[in-house]
Amino acid sequence: EDKVVQSPLSLVVHEGDTVTLNCSYEVTNFRSLLWYKQEKKAPTFLFMLTSSGIEKKSGRLSSILDKKELFSILNITATQTGDSAIYLCAVEEGNYGGATNKLIFGTGTLLAVQP
Amino acid sequence: DSGVTQTPKHLITATGQRVTLRCSPRSGDLSVYWYQQSLDQGLQFLIQYYNGEERAKGNILERFSAQQFPDLHSELNLSSLELGDSALYFCASSSPILRGHSYNEQFFGPGTRLTVL
User: Fold this and answer.
1) A95 band by pLDDT with thresholds 50, 70 and 90
2) For chain B, which end, N or C, has fewer CB atoms within 10 Å of the first or last residue's CB respectively?
3) Which residues of A touch B68 (CB under 8 A)?
């Protein structure tokens, strides 16, 4: 059965700290891995990763994928209170070229950044 | 604002009842996805429609059904509701998959919170 596992389940840090969120997966027909940030409402897209070893960066956030070991990490440096959210990892599963890109989500990591 | 709309925002109903959740995708998007998010299960894929046809099925109960209409809006019907169906239901949409593109980002609507009493 396909699964995506995130750790830790939750963490509390102080502003300015650096955090690393983990995501491991076992998915047949892997196409890509995605990170989303969910605050009070809908998940918002952060990154999509398809190739191993290539870091994606957006400001203080960065992410990398290891397709051999089947995991990804999301790093947030110099955390701010506005980073407090649930961070969701999802793996896109499907056949290349088809019109199906089902996302299998992990349960998420709840990050709380205290001032 | 993702451009995906969902109604209603919040729904409270009793066990045994039936409800319909509605989703309008972003303009031009042909694919609609439904997800259920509960505290203990996380975000779970339910079903996908593409241009009116069912394309993929996830962990969707037999009591649940969905359809996508010619104008591309979609409805998720939940019947014989149980307490455990209480959750946030998200709809997402994406553009058609084009050759050479590995992924089309799914844009999520604001969700419908269903409370079953």
Assistant:
1) low
2) N
3) none
